[in-house]
Amino acid sequence: MKRLLCFLLILGWCIDSVHAQLHLNAKLQNNHLWRGMEVADGIVLLTDFNYSMADNHVTVGLWGGVNSEGSYKEFNHYLSLKAGGWHLDLWDTYNFSPGATYNNKQYWNYSAHETGRFLDMTVGFSIKRRFRWL
Question: Residues 85-99: pLDDT tens digits?
Fold first, then answer.
């Protein structure tokens, strides 16, 4: 995974270094929802640090979140690819919550039966056409 991210960064820099951008975003919220489920409550700080390249068709990033009570900590790596209306998002998610029933002590452990992380993939297509409703 680390080699793939490095390769994509170098490739994007070589192909289109003029259109590469570095972004840092932070949000302060009263809770954190993921796909309709409340993941954390209280004051939550969410951060996103990413590098977009190839005219925003490739984005590699780090995303993190923590709440004020210390009961929620999360750190994710992600890769987003966009072309022709299609997008593919790959997320490597790892949650450090203290009451977890899974292994959240070995960050780089990717063994399927031992890890506390999960891989998430989203594929989508955007239609950029206006529809008229009668």
Answer: 999 999 998 887 666
